[in-house]
Write a structure and sequence with these properties.
By secondary structure, the protein is of the alpha+beta class. It is about 25% helix and about 35% strand.
Length: about 140
Amino acid sequence: MNYWLVKSEPEAYSWTQFVKEGRTAWTGVRNFAARNNLRAMKTGDPVFFYHSGEEKSVVGLARVAGESYPDPTAEEGDWSAVDLVPVKTLARPVALSQIKADKILQEMKLAKESRLSVSPVTREQFTCLLELSETKI
């Protein structure tokens, strides 16, 4: 099993909207590293949902509902998408400032490559984020 984090501006697509819909196709990724991360996702992998923009917090936990497939929104190029389903809202959001201050989390791609919209999370980072968010799964 692998662990992931996806980013979205809440004004464009929020955790609340995702939960209401119950499933989404994660499309529109136009960065090669992020695309490769989408392609590496496997059904059942846990995915943290991060609100970028003003909020800058990990707010929810989702899971991969299916392997990657060609992005239907791509008019040209070799781009991929995956389907995600929400699992649960974190009991307490984890702010980017907390992530950057934590010895384990400061090594996350989120802290080092802030423009990467889909990134891997280590098992240790996954566990640490759950602890900081006071969330049990």
